[in-house]
Design brief:
By secondary structure, this protein is α+β, with helices and mostly antiparallel strands. Among the domains are: about 70 residues, Muramoyl-pentapeptide Carboxypeptidase, domain 1; about 140 residues, Muramoyl-pentapeptide Carboxypeptidase, domain 2, CATH 3.30.1380. Helices cover about 45% and strands about 10% of the residues. The protein binds zinc ion.
Length: about 375
């Protein structure tokens, strides 16, 4: 037994050292693997947050907001996006449906149909159309600023003077929301003091503005002056804002009025966005400074007799109200080019009739 004891005593330092070496080796292997994994992780982490400029950073921040759980009622309601579900989505769908943006079932599930509806709503209201119902979108959606869905049927046309047929814009021929005419210039940069302006930033399509300048120079040479520009190019967003503000004002002044009633009332005096000829950059409202009725002025008589020779037409007359859908506006001229203008005067056609006539001529040939 003592022998054994001695042998054990002799063996134990080696055993201890061997164990220590093994532990050290194992520790080093695990340690280096962990370092490799950590390095790989940090390298990946350094890359993923900035993948490419085309990826919206919002996609990263949105991830935690996918509503797989219902947030406590005291918390600020987060944005609603694809995959969300529950009472707030139901309310969202109901509201979008009421305004005509959503056709699907009100089931509280934020799917692709709901996303498309949110995007259409955002687009029509000048919001960032990301399809996510965030604070800004929800604020507009549940306010008086929310307008009913308006379809945009006609294709986008940039060159308002292109083609054989003059561009027709009216209640039945609506321009797309993103329509912008090509070659806009500031009228004052071209005409200077020849004209007065209700707004010095008024713009028009260059060719039409040049024709306007030649026309007013001729009037001035005939002793007919002064002239003032009261209206020119207007963006569709401008028109949307004007329209929405009017609807809101009617509803504020009369609490009994429904939204659709307020919209109908607004349409009596304000064109629907996309339906005003002022979006083309080819139409101008002319008047005489400090004069109420343009129709009683020498300027009007001169304009009515000579505008055709400069490529302009008197766009809205009382005689053609049934066809144009607009009451007589003797101050509103529209540029169509000299050939079209002469032909229209000869035929006594308004633009609606003339466009129809040209289409028939073209189909007969
Ligand atoms: Zn006008």
């Amino acid at each position: 037994m003592p022998q054994r004891k001695t042998r054990r005593k002799q063996r134990s330092p080696y055993l201890f050292m061997a164990l220590a070496v093994i532990l050290l080796v194992v520790g080093l292997v695990i340690g280096s693997r962990a370092m490799n994994a950590w390095n790989a992780y940090t390298a990946a982490a350094a890359v993923t947050p900035t993948p490419s400029p085309t990826v919206r950073p919002i996609a990263v921040t949105q991830a935690p907001d996918l509503v797989t759980f219902t947030p406590p009622p005291t918390a600020t309601p987060g944005p609603l996006s694809s995959g969300a579900s529950g009472e707030r989505v139901t309310q969202l769908q109901q509201r979008l449906k009421e305004l005509g943006f959503y056709q699907g079932s009100v089931d509280g599930q934020f799917g692709s149909g709901t996303k498309s509806a949110v995007r259409a709503f955002q687009k029509q209201h000048g919001l960032d159309d990301d399809g996510i119902a965030g604070a800004k979108t929800l604020a507009v959606l549940y306010s008086d600023q929310a307008a009913a869905y308006q379809p945009t049927p006609t294709p986008k046309v940039d060159d308002t003077l292109a083609g054989d047929i003059p561009l027709l814009v009216n209640k039945w021929n609506k321009l797309p929301d993103d329509f912008v005419p090509a070659d806009l210039v500031t009228i004052r940069d071209v005409a200077g003091d020849l004209l007065q302006y209700d707004d010095k930033t008024f713009q028009g399509v260059r060719e039409a503005v040049d024709a306007l300048v030649r026309m007013i120079q001729a009037a001035k040479a005939d002793g007919i002056t002064p002239w003032k520009v009261g209206g020119a190019y207007r963006t569709i967003k401008d028109q949307q804002r004007i329209f929405n503000n009017r609807v809101s004002r009617y509803m504020q002044n009369d609490s009994e009025l429904t939204r659709s009633q307020a919209i109908s009332r607004t349409r009596l005096t304000v064109a629907d966005p996309g339906c005003s000829e002022h979006h083309t950059g080819l139409a101008f409202d002319l008047n005489v400074p400090n004069t109420e009725a343009f129709v009683d002025t020498a300027q009007y008589l001169w304009l009515n007799a000579h505008c055709w020779d400069y490529g302009f037409i008197m766009r809205y007359t009382d005689e053609k109200e049934d066809i144009t859908g607009i009451i007589g506006e003797e101050w509103h001229v529209r540029y169509v080019g000299i050939d079209h203008a002469h032909k229209m005067r000869e035929l006594d056609y308004c633009l609606e009739e003339y466009v129809e006539y040209l289409k028939q001529q073209l189909s007969n040939n």
